[in-house]
Amino acid sequence: MRLKNSFFFTLREDVRDEDSISGNLLVKAGYIKKTSAGVYMMLPLGLRVQNKIENIIRKHMNEAGGQEVKMPALIAAEYYEDSGRMKGFGPSIFKLKDRNNKDMVLGPTHEELFAYAAKSMIRSYKNMPFNLYQFQTKFRDEPRARFGLVRVKEFVMKDAYSFDADEKGLDVSYHKMFDAYKKSFDEMGINYRIVKADTGVMGGLLSEEFQAIAPLGEDTVIYCDDCDYSSNLEVAEVIRAEKHIKEEAKPMQEVETPHCESIEDVAKYLKIDMKDTVKALIMNVDGELVIFFMNGERELNESKALKLLKANEIGFADDELIATSNAVPGYCGPIDLNCKVVIDKEVLEMNNFCCGANKKGYHLINVNPENIHYDVVGDIVNAKEGDLCPKCGKPLKFTKGIEIGNTFKLGTKYSKAMGLQYADIDNKLQDVWMGSYGIGLGRTMAAIVEQSHDDKGIIWPDNIAPYKVIILQMSSKDEKQTEIAEDIYNRLNQSGIECMLDDRDERPGVKFNDAELIGIPYRITVGKKAAEGIVEFKSRDGSINEEYTIEEAINKIKSL
RNA sequence: CGGGAUGUAGCUCAGCUUGGUAGAGUACUUGAUUUGGGAUCAAGGUGUCACAGGUUCGAAUCCUGCCAUCCCGACCA
User: Fold this and answer.
1) pLDDT digits over A27-66, tens only?
2) Are A335 and A364 in contact (CB under 8 A)?
3) Which of A36, A414, A456, A497 is a Cys-bridge partner for A492, taking CB atoms 3.0 to 4.6 Å apart?
4) DSSP per-residue string spanning A186-212
5) Bond before A143 cis per omega within 30 degrees
């Protein structure tokens, strides 16, 4: 690619709209351009990078026995009605009607269509296993698009689906995909961790996420350095390091706590430790008033709470709903409440603790498990710093991650919904076991930039960069330089090496800065010593900075 | 959904308090001088001041509404 007369531009200043490092760099360097919130154009450089990522994944999908297909993005809504996910996705699904008033959606993910497609093929157990995949644009009306390509409303996903006769077969297919994912992300040089995760709207038996480690990540990744344990915060089991000391139960007592409506205020006022308090969260769970109690230092984990109660929606209760009970906001305790009460299992291990008295301005002290009343008990809180590894008991580590890939053991959920069955060896009809496996391409691109950049710009790994080499001709009017730059450019192209030639009539500083901003791995500078046949060879990461003859420079590139 | 902020030249922003008809830097065009880290000089083009109402002789500026974009929060009893 010659920069002169190419669709290529860079910006000199940070863009106002992009706060994330990757979003800002990709926009500044001319890879992407935003058209509206969470919707981006892929410009020539961006598309090349996306294609690089796509091809690495494609290679590993094919090696794992996948067959590539392409489903439509425009899908009749009835498929999602059948699976119950029209409701499951709720407002996140883009809905539209065709001219005959037929309900359509823009596909947010494609389990339904793949199950439907598989029905054309599967008759008998002899037809399985097989695995299909595609690269297709997904549409999700995210409540809040943000962080450049990290959370968007339209994005290309590689999604794969496996079909097996039984759970054992699914295990084999799943591990094949899992390995293909590891190979793909390893090849891209991404620093990632694999964590257990919530199955969420996908449902099914198991979900594991590939989390690229990055400070702006939206997920909290918990891991153990001493063993292989790792988990997403949303499902991580809580093992408290410091056990509650069992002391003799004292008689429960009511104390005045004026204007202490937060648990911090109460602890401060009564001069007690937060860990010896129990706090309440008054929530609206599917329209029903539910009060959750947990240790004062803990936070409610809403996805755990939903799973425990087999509910769909959770939010804070409004005053109207609270008024249907005898709960007193700010002074709520798990004693004599006339609504549903859920407690965290840790509360049962505490003793002589403090909680609300259900009376404005009063709390109770020396409360013990035998004093309280509840309907459900379970793990409903988040792990926090200091908690222990559930596997080996060592302290857990916390970091932030960007979810770049996810693998699901779906089981028979979608085959049941779509009527996907086969005849087994005894000629009995059985449900097909499915797995589904996704990788977000744009998100992967963003994660790589988050992990690999400096104050000058992006530093692409060799196999992700849009071009491997950029040739900078210092003076566009110097004939000798033109001759050499053209010669190198043509010879590299003939060798199949992807190469940019900066032949613009710009000053050297502009060319150096642009080359560093867009992050091309190797730079050949044709300048001062061109007349002597000498060029400079520099790598973007700084590991190489040498003067070579033209032959040496070309051979060096070929060897890298 | 709740809270906060911002919409003015391709980009980054000033101007708004106190209304008087549009600015800077950068980018762009032409010419000259430059040519190894975002050049200099000269001349030039560039706008529905997000949009819609209203107040006013007069609105980027004041009022009302609306749209868009970004950030924070979705954890408070």
Assistant:
1) 999 999 999 999 999 999 999 999 999 999 999 999 999 9
2) yes
3) A497
4) HHTT--EEEEE---GGG-SSEEEEEEE
5) no
The pLDDT tens digits for A162-193 are: 999 999 999 999 999 999 999 999 999 999 99
Q: Which long-range contacts (CB under 8 A, 24 or more apart) does A536-544 make?
A: A540/A459, A540/A460, A540/A516, A541/A459
Q: Determine whether the distance from the CB of A70 to the nearest atom of strand B is below 7 Å.
A: no
Structure-token match 């399985």, residue found: A128
Q: Which amino acid is at A539?
A: S
What three-state secondary structure class fits A369? helix
Tell whether ipTM is more than 0.90.
yes
- For each of the domains in chain A, give its residue range(s) and CATH number, in order of start: 21-187+402-449 (3.30.930.10), 253-378 (3.90.960.10), 469-559 (3.40.50.800)
The CA distance from A129 to A16, in Å, is 50
Give the nucleotide with minimal C1' distance to the Cα of A517. Answer: B38
Whole-model pTM? 0.93
- The whole-angstrom separation of Cα A534 and Cα A527 is 8
Q: Distance between alpha carbon A240 and the CA centroid of its chain, in Å?
A: 27
User: Could you say which residues 7-66 of protein chain A have a Cβ atom less than 7 A away from any atom in strand B?
Assistant: 10-20, 34, 36-38
Which positions ≥6 away from A208 have C-beta within 8 Å?
Answer: A178, A194, A195, A196, A197, A406, A407
Whether A264 CB is under 7 Å from strand B: yes
CB contact set of A200 (below 8 Å; sequence gap of 6+): A207, A303
